[in-house]
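Quality-control log, excerpt.
Job 1 of 2 completed; input and output follow.
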Amino acid sequence: MPGIIKVSSQQPLFLGWCGFWNKVIEVDVMILVGGVELSLSDYVHRVKLHGSWMGAILSSRKSGVLVAEHSIKSVDQVIMRIQNELMVKRYKYHNRLEPVLTILRGVVSGETPLFFLNTELILAISGIIGIKTKFIRDIKKQEGSSKTVKLKHRVESKVEAPFVYYMGRGA
């Protein structure tokens, strides 16, 4: 569809999972959303590595708080696991993960926002693997009667050209 921009939006996931990256690759613009409530059962602060969970330890586990308002307590276990399980010579491209470790080492307990950490990790990984998608950060809580209405307002406020929304429950 010439002239039509493919857009998607989602909470920025901690390191992402395969389906998230497939979604990113398929669109021209990805809106990373922090103005929604954090679901502690979601992947916003955790990911599976070699079959077991790892993730950022949150400063607070309150429900009903926006993703953009949560901060990180620690990512020490994540750093250790990446170093011990992925930064080994048996993986041909192990050195490419250094920018990810640099971002994780910069986390300040109780001060680094989860939204900021996740978006920085997504941008770093996108650069490492050569993704050309444009990322837009959105921390504004959208008003509306349904997820679909909120999604429509969010996309219309961020994308000017004709667009088609790509994937998602609200679409």
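Job 2 of 2 completed; input and output follow.
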Amino acid sequence: MRILFFVASLYGGGMERIAALFASHLVQQHQVIVADFSDNKRTYPIDPQVEIIDISPKSPIRAFHRMERMSNIKRTIKTINPDIIISFSVSLNAKVIKANRRLKKKIIVSERTTVSRSLNRTAEHARKKLYPLADCVVYVTKEDYDHSPHVKNKTYIYNPLTLEPYDNYEN
């Protein structure tokens, strides 16, 4: 199976750690491609079998970056032709769902922020109107799962615990 991950980056916090762990685990039995916007910055180790592609905007004109991000997401889905897409983070989840509408690939969005946390109106719109369009929404807690009655195809998976130290952790 070809699995395409979309992450804002693999540099920084907890969501990035989860994405690196999931991709590294899944690549043992599947082809895994991670598309990110971070200019190849990495905090967490990731299995070398995972293909990482940078889809960050390249335009020197910052005003075009939003449009370029959407175009890059859609082009990446078409080019990779994945069997399934897994997306992380509220704002990126919304963009990936929108880009995938006509392409109709299976999509899992992973909500790594507690839904009780107040977000901006755009993020709230994504949660209420776009998440129901995903094939599955993965929440991080049972409380978040229960807090989202508008989403029918959902589950929750607690964050995995790793006991190995990250020697290359930068912060």
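Post-run check on job 2. Strands lie at 2-7, 31-36, 51-54, 84-88, 106-110, 136-139, 154-156.
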